[in-house]
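Re: the 166-residue chain
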Amino acid sequence: MMAVVDTNVPVVANGNSEQASSDCVVSCAKKLQLVMDTGQIVLDDQWLIIEEYQNNLRSIGQPGPGDAFLKWVLTNRSNRIKCVLVSIHPTGPDGSGFEEFPLNPALQYFDAQDRKFVAVARACSPSPVVLEAVDPGWWIHRRALKQCGVRVEFLCPIDIKRLAAK
């Protein structure tokens, strides 16, 4: 499995999301372990995703599953067997736009902070899956993302449907 991992997946795996059910926490922890054991993570070569991970997780101390994932990412960032690095090209004054982000009107309100994950997925060939836990914006935009060739795996479908319905 080749995957782009949205930050909320390791955050949920750590049990740090009040929106996530206990089943969701377990699902996220298991999927992260699968990526670490047998998969590849796809990251940008500018550390945008890693910086977001570092702002939300710990790589030292007594780690939860999400923190262990961050440590694994930092350890394997240069390991081509475990990590695929792609170039993405920020645009706009705040750098939250990307040349690789689809020019689809249905995605104009997609969260600016999550656009880097979409850009990384679209910059990689073959196309990886984006792992998502409880961010309802991904669920709301799932059809438009699919039309643009972005595959999203929702690890917590019951939770995300509930959150998107609010």
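The CA atoms of residues 142 and 152 lie 7 Å apart.
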